[in-house]
Amino acid sequence: MKHRILFITSAILVAASLLFVSCEKDSPAQSNVLVVHASPNAPGVDLLVDNSKKNSSALAFPNNTGYLKVASGTRNIKVNVSGTATTVIEADLSLTKDASYTVFAVDSVSKISAVVLTDNLTAPAAGKAHVRFVHLSPNAPSVDVAVASSGAVVFGNKAFKESTDFTPLDAGTYNLDVRVAGTSTVALVLPAITLESGKIYTIFAKGFLGGTGAQALGAEIIVNK
Fold first, then answer.
1. C-alpha angle 194-60-86 in degrees, rounded to nearest 5
2. pTM, full prediction
3. What is the domain-level CATH number for residue 108?
4. Is 10 within the bounds of a domain?
């Protein structure tokens, strides 16, 4: 009787294991996609993946969707004027399983286009944060990003639509200057930027040089992880 109970228990465990493996195989491969509205004078937009709308309310400048789970493989991505069928950006993206991506809608509304980056979300070392810079101000010149107190350049000579890799920096609070590349001319001051240990950030330049109100030259920080 004891042997029979052991046999039945073993059979149940094996069946459960096979079921778990089967469920894993049947689970669809997914990727992570974050969309950022970085076109200063464009209206609110909707995000569609394979013609399925992913946001519940209009995505407005300079906000983002956060990471969305999207089936891996080749996906058709559309950015539409919110509440309409008017497509302003369309692209077929090849998404790798478990990989993460950021899609920026950039430039002025008459020339709106997409910048797509692959996001390396590898955890920073102890006491470090990972930071990247993306230049998304359409009419601003190439820039350096420097530490205000020392003048040390953290990210150098980036033009519109260009980006850096995620770079390890000591956790802490920084005052940063965005300067015209190769000069000491400060175009934008970024005071009290706090970087937490273990976090991953994207800082992007936004708005128009000479712009006013919501369209003024500025910066936005995304916490990727």
1. 145
2. 0.85
3. 2.60.40
4. no
